[in-house]
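STRUCTURE:
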């Protein structure tokens, strides 16, 4: 997701169109990962600082090196990158000892402490400077850390800068060691730089974009005034086995690498939908350079739906659903991406997120075996009802964060789509339910009804449309989606430390209550209200 809640796109740091070379090795005596780099100019050192800042926004960084080695150059580049301000005055704190800055919201908004301990003679002074136990969201960049003795918090990353023996005045040899996770993040950032150098050109400016609830991240990348999007999605290791020898991601058919995005994008583009053009990709590395579709939203500044734009989005779905289903797409590396079926196992394990996370939160205890068995029996019966439903490609996240409104375009091209890698082939009603019961935006009953009527009217005009079955499917899939997201948002709080998602729970409870109006959900309604009451929480 990169279409909303982001900072304005602007260049961060300017530097010559140069690059640096990287070699990697393990520093075995420290049992830590080490990177050995070389830069050939101050511009390259600045670029390195920017790339490190794209990887590390909190923790402790120690900078070591002789006078004039470039420690302050590197620190200044990092601070300006994190503050998203190329003109920010970042003086050396040699005499003040400490300078404090605030990172931009897109970089976490935390405090940045830049310390220079060159003049410190008593390590106990570090306590007064706040360097013994930095706050969790703080980044401390410390020059001359050796003068702090044992009073300093241990570093997450240690960077040592030295002039090489060849006597070149601008050349630097740089060694980065530290905690494996932190060094791996820097290594990944350097890999992104190499990808951009190879597939677009030198000197690309990088800025973080707000991510989504997944493990993917995005960057705004700019070169010669042109803005593109970098998707960073390294293949994730499989989680623990949940059922039938498979982890959750495999059962629920979640994309495990960027091949799914590339494959589904090609399928949607051939069907006439507005998706980002892929300029370049490294499918093995999990990197894609994408067209920037813009920042237009289908909601207003108060986060209220703009009805015209929601209706236009529903019309795009209607037209798409009148086309033949395509499930296979050959990729540039010769492999074929196959869009999986939204099968019983996937639907059921998603619904069970409510049992696994939401129920314990609001009942104060795990589900009993009879409660779980009854829940599963209800959903198996509902899934049985879907066996004869119309099957189409479901993008699975067709809602406001992932729809880009393009005022300068006409017709369906106004509706840009950016998040569809988890696509499956399932009931066509799913994506309309995703839009009309937007998990992050209040869609009132009147607009939901209008969206459903608009979609059905367009489908009737296209011929051969079983509206009664579709409306039943809509109720079931809307309920399934609300059920799983109630579980997901509690999981994001409890497991991932993201409490912000809890504010959406009342909306989802309300959506589920709306779906319960359809008689096909009578049994589920009785079970749910028996567990949580009509409000949806015990």
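SEQUENCE:
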């Amino acid at each position: 997701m990169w279409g909303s809640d982001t900072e304005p796109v602007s260049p961060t740091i300017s530097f010559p169109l140069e690059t640096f070379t990287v070699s990697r090795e393990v520093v075995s005596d420290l049992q830590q990962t080490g990177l050995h780099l070389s830069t050939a100019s101050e511009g390259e050192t600045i670029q390195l600082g920017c790339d490190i800042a794209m990887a590390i926004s909190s923790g402790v960084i120690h900078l070591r090196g002789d006078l004039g080695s470039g420690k302050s150059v590197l620190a200044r580049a990092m601070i300006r990158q994190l503050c998203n301000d190329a003109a920010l005055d970042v003086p050396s704190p040699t005499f003040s000892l400490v300078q404090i800055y605030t990172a931009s919201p897109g970089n976490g908004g935390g405090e940045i402490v830049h310390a220079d301990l060159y003049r410190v003679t008593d390590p106990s002074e570090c306590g007064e400077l706040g360097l013994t136990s930095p706050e969790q969201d703080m980044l401390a960049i410390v020059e001359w850390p050796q003068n702090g003795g044992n009073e300093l918090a241990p570093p997450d990353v240690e960077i040592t800068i030295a002039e090489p023996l060849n006597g070149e005045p601008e050349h630097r040899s740089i060694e980065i060691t530290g905690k494996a996770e932190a060094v791996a993040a820097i290594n990944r950032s350097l890999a992104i730089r190499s990808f951009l150098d190879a597939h677009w050109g030198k000197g690309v400016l990088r800025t973080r974009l707000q991510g989504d609830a997944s493990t993917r991240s995005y960057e705004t990348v700019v070169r010669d005034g042109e803005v593109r999007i970098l998707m960073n999605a390294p293949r994730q290791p499989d989680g623990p086995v949940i059922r039938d020898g498979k982890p959750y991601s495999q059962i629920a058919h979640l994309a495990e690498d960027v091949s799914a995005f590339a494959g589904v994008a090609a399928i949607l583009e051939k069907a006439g939908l507005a998706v980002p053009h892929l300029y370049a990709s490294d499918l093995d590395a999990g990197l894609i350079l994408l067209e920037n579709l813009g920042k237009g939203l289908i909601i207003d500044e108060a986060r209220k739906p703009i009805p015209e734009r929601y209706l236009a989005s529903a019309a795009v779905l209607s037209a798409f659903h009148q086309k033949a289903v395509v499930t296979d797409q050959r990729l540039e590396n010769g492999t074929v991406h196959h869009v999986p079926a939204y099968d019983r196992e996937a639907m059921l394990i998603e619904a069970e997120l409510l049992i696994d996370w939401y129920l314990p939160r609001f009942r104060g205890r795990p589900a009993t075996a009879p409660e779980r068995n009854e829940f599963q029996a209800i959903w198996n019966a509902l899934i049985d009802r879907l066996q004869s439903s119309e099957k189409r490609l479901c993008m699975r996240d067709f809602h406001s964060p992932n729809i880009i409104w393009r005022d300068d375009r006409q017709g369906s091209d106004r509706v840009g789509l950016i998040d569809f890698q988890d696509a499956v082939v399932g009931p066509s009603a799913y994506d309309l339910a995703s839009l009309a019961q937007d998990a992050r935006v209040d869609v009132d009953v009147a607009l939901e009804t209008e969206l459903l009527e608009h979609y059905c009217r367009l489908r009737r005009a296209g011929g051969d449309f079983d509206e009664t079955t579709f409306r039943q499917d809509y109720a079931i899939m809307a309920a399934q989606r609300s059920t799983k997201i109630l579980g997901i948002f509690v999981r994001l709080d409890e497991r991932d430390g993201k409490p912000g998602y809890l504010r959406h729970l009342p909306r989802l409870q309300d959506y589920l209550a709306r779906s319960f109006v359809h008689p096909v959900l009578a049994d589920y309604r009785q079970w749910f209200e028996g567990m949580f009451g009509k409000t949806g929480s015990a």
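REMARK: Confidence is low (pLDDT under 50) at residues 1-31.
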